[in-house]
Design goal:
Two copies of one chain form a homodimer. With 410 residues, chain A is α/β, with parallel strands linked by helices. Chain A contains 13 helices and 16 strands. The C terminus of chain A is likely disordered. Chains A and B meet through α12 and α13 of A and α12 and α13 of B.
Chain lengths: 410, 410
């Protein structure tokens, strides 16, 4: 099996699952912190491990521009380069090409654009995106799609969806022919271990930390990355359904729902997800890209979504917005200047067990680097703990009892 | 005894010592990381503990302006506010008033200045500085001195030194009358514990983590902060000697040598330190403020200096300069772009045992927040490990065998 996925329990439409990757298991529903340029901003890899992150996301667009996929390949792939021994997922670069670069031109071939860093010209095609992602060597890579702009007329949404399907086919063809060129497949062994600490002073090598050859389950682990297809279709339920059906026909080990959280209402997001879920196979992971607020990720997990990613917890943290069990908190607010309570009295993370709101506020208004660190650690803990609670509730068959605070404190 | 200080071993003029504070012991010679505004930039308190920092420095000028000493006092003092349960030292604010603020005017009374933050007017006097430092509640506080500018003519250096002596006397008078107002003295108990993790969800309290009343050595621990005097005298050896003699006449539990590392040659720095050390009592800690490079701190420790502080390891880190056993390394240099070695193959810190030069370079050139974190952790590890090695060498009676790399790699 390309990407082993086991459903271990269900509660309503929610599922407790487990994806087995060559770099460890991923319990689902999972929230994936975004490690844009090979780093989850302000948070070191050991802290991510401690928080329980089992999979993080890398952005192909950013890594391609800097430091470059060939350099990362030479370093042994993204896992080795950033010293992350757990699962990695890379997006295709499509979204950032549209949102970050300038002077972009879309043709059937692909998207030509200028780098937002230095203005140099580049061309992303399905084949190029696959080549880059294979060089980076994530466990899960994404088909190169077109993110339909919002709003979009029906005919425009259809045309865009059709091109995404043609690009998905090209992505798969190239991927199947080249996936074995991934930097970690030569060893064919599973890299086991929750920490990246080297046991000697030697330079990092391709040696896995434990010989998995004796593991009876060894032969079932992926020997190459897995490619997911992406459902588009704008804000049209019937197009979403059709996109899902036709993407399934191409047969991928997992399916994402893209082009959402681009300005539409929460109701519309849910509706588009539901239309796609009606059709996507239940025995493969379903991944909604780019969501969401704490209450959203709980809701989508209950609907049967298995994976989600979003910059929200990390970006909000750097802007002083904390997510807590009592709702959102703008830590820079003067009301916290002398507040000796922990940020979230119900949170057990390293930040809440040690620091006060007053101190975090001081750090933030003083523009101290530690503000970003601590705020981010807490927000990620909140998101990852929330998903852990969801998984636990599904296991107990009581997902309807879960609720995530959505009242704003400030 | 105001501040118990025990010399446990000697090697030449170097001494292995131990200062007992109400917030834990400080092994000397010690290097004190600078936590300017109540935070060592980019590094959380648990990492500082892990690195073995036993004492850090807070800047009175910065904390007075923001968040304000009265707020910190209300929070229970700086230890509680920043959740640092080990020793703290605050400087008097004198240096920053001269180097950071604008429109400052010095009179016999003190220094009036405008805040660099918002231009508001303030007046620092010896009494005011003591009041602020007592409110912050560090274990060791510094007399309010005038940092003689460099260069300075002999007569100017003398006048400045004389004022520092008058201000030292005023500092001590106010301090002795008010030191019991320090926020942690009410409990009179030693706060024991190397971590700040709260065992419950209650707000931080003044309760120490262990009742020290059963500790037979309990009655010897300081019940209030300790005030150190500061030797000035510019770059004139005879003035340095006189300043030291007359500061000792005022009788402090420890003595600092200030006004150095302001542009003079390394030889001059050493000469001025030596002239003061000739006279300062051997049974009390000697603290050189604002130094230095790795080879310097080893050298001064060998001369008999017990404490040092400097922003160099932390500030250099944020500028991409790493200190290693093979010398200085500018991590942004292109030569490291594909270098898979650890930053310092001889360093056992969390950074060197996990990350490569290539990755650190990527983080730095990408202006990632993690760059400051990892670079700072390594540099502090290097400095603290260096001092640990010095202490060990003194214990073995072999300080002359110590050497710190000073060759620049880039």
């Amino acid at each position: 099996m390309t990407l082993p996925f086991t459903i271990e329990a269900q509660s309503g439409t929610g599922r407790l699952g487990r994806i087995s990757t060559a770099h460890g298991d991923v319990e689902t529903p999972a929230f994936m912190p975004v490690g844009t340029a090979g780093t989850v901003k302000a948070v070191s890899q050991d802290i991510l491990e401690e928080l329980g992150a089992q999979i993080i996301l890398g952005n192909t667009y950013h890594l391609y521009l800097r430091p470059g996929h060939e350099l990362v390949r030479k370093m042994g792939g993204l896992h080795k380069f950033m010293s992350w021994n757990r699962a990695l997922l890379t997006d295709s670069g499509g979204f950032q090409v549209f949102s970050l670069s300038e002077l972009r031109k879309v043709t059937e071939e692909g998207v030509s654009f200028r780098s937002h860093l230095d203005g140099t010209s580049h061309l992303f095609t399905p084949e190029r995106s696959m080549e880059i992602q294979i060089a980076l060597g994530a466990d899960i890579v994404m088909a190169f799609d077109e993110c339909t702009e919002h709003p979009a007329e029906r005919e425009r949404a259809r045309q865009s969806m059709e091109m995404t399907l043609r690009w998905a086919k090209r992505s798969k063809e190239y991927f199947e022919a080249h996936k074995h060129e991934c930097p970690w497949t030569e060893s064919g062994l599973r890299v086991i271990g929750t920490s990246g600490h080297r046991e000697s002073q030697n330079p990092p090598s391709a040696q896995p930390r434990a010989a998995a050859v004796h593991d009876p389950g060894f032969s079932e682990l992926p020997a190459t990355p897995a490619l997911f297809g992406i459902v588009q279709g704008g804000m049209y339920g019937d197009l979403r359904r059709e996109s899902a059906e036709r993407t399934v026909e191409l047969d991928f080990p997992g399916y994402a729902i893209g082009g959402l959280s681009v300005g539409e209402s929460r109701e519309k997001t849910m509706e588009m997800i539901a239309r796609a879920l009606d059709v996507l196979p239940r025995d493969k992971p379903r991944y909604v890209m780019g969501v969401g607020y704490p209450e959203e990720i709980v809701q989508y997990a209950a609907m049967g979504v298995d994976m989600m990613d979003c910059v929200l917890p990390t970006r909000a943290a750097r802007h002083g917005l904390l997510f807590t069990s009592a709702g959102r908190m703008n830590i820079k607010n003067a009301r916290y200047a002398q507040d000796q309570q922990p940020p979230d009295p119900k949170c057990g993370c390293r930040v809440c067990s040690r620091y006060t709101r007053a101190y975090l506020r001081h750090l933030f208004v003083s523009a101290e680097p530690l503000a970003a660190v601590l705020n981010t650690v807490h927000n990620l803990a909140f998101y990852l703990d929330t998903m852990r609670a969801v998984r636990h509730a599904i296991k107990l068959g009581d997902l309807s009892g879960m609720r995530s605070g959505s009242v704003s404190l400030a």
